[in-house]
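Translate sequence into structure tokens.
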Amino acid sequence: MGDRRIPEDVITEVVLVADSTRSALDPNWPPAPPAKGALADKIAYWIQWKNDQFFGILRLLIPIFRLPKGGPVLVTRFKDVQEVLSRPDTFGVVYAPMMDKSVGPFMLARDNTVYNRRDKGIMRSLIDDKDHPEIRKRVSRIASKCIQQGTVDGTLELVASVTRRAPILLTGKYFGFPGPDVETMMRWSKATQLDMFHNQTMSGKVHDDSILAGREMWEYITNELLPKRRKQLRKNPERNDIVSRMLSTQCPAHIGWDEGRIVSNIMGLLVGGIETTSQAVIQIVDELLSRPKQLDGARQAALHGDEALFARYCWEALRFNPINPVVFRQCNQDYRLASGTFRTKLIRKGRVVVVGTRSAMEDPREVARPRKFRTNRPDYQYLHLGFGEHRCLGDGVSMVQVPEIVKQIVLLKNLRRMPGKAGQIDFGGGPFPERFSVMYDA
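Result follows.
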């Protein structure tokens, strides 16, 4: 008889599902899914609350899962996720209806168009990797000051005091977009992020708040920021924040880099940089606090000035609870995914594709021993900053800013959670962390 041993990847998937299912047997686990309702509603619940179990089962049994009656298609394995994200012509983004009325035509919603190619090319040239050492110093100073100002008797609520505030202050210092005040910038950031990337129910109130935030940003940038910055540049042509670089960049008229494009891209610096950074920092700190050995390892790396190793602790911690477990795409033409394999499926034009980036980072076919915490994984296995055409425009800034904010928190003496609910992440019924408190020996 032939060798009938069960393939290793199958055994690994079963262990993953069993392990994550055991973690669900907790009195504080979220309430049961709705007993009635459409299958899509139950799947939305599973994706949000039982992502690892649900996607683990799909990876093993139905890697490309087409919901009936033209419903969404769920993509779960690493190679298939990469394939979808590598084909923006076929699998397009769905952000334009939300973005256009708030920040105008924006590169993120315009794959393979002049908006995308021109604007992304110019902005990438202005956000220079050579700035990283100075960004690190600025973030270190900003985060340290935020911690100091936010601490009350050795307790610190991280979200309002540090993880939202620090990126906004960096947006003012490095990007050159300070806004009228921190509170207004927080409101603009949250309103636009919520509508553009999390308004799957198409809430009119959420959309209206984003439109209002966009209108207010446009008026502020056009009537206050740009005239003031131009005046400052006349006095000091060497001024070097990103807005100053944008205004100093001379392009022929036919390129189309006009005032409208400048304003829209300045707005994009805020939309894409605050809530994502805040959530990443919070979820990294939360994961490290749940892993004392790894927390100590990260702290030792920080104390020894090993920035690269410390960053690896951060990105590996985030892999266990990434900020976006899935991203959405729209299929623009009939396409056979994973062609030539047993799991291949034809995806019809018009279907929504739910791309399981969290699932991909737990796929044992690509990620060795995915339930183990390892700091030596290859960079390509992390999808935190996107993949392909939609890798984050500010990826270089994020790769410095996120670990640096985390570092300032981790270095606090005897860092620990606040007792009770205050020491757990509170999402306030929404997609973003709203409160998370820690204690330390001040």
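Note: Residues 284 and 318 are 5 Å apart (CA to CA).
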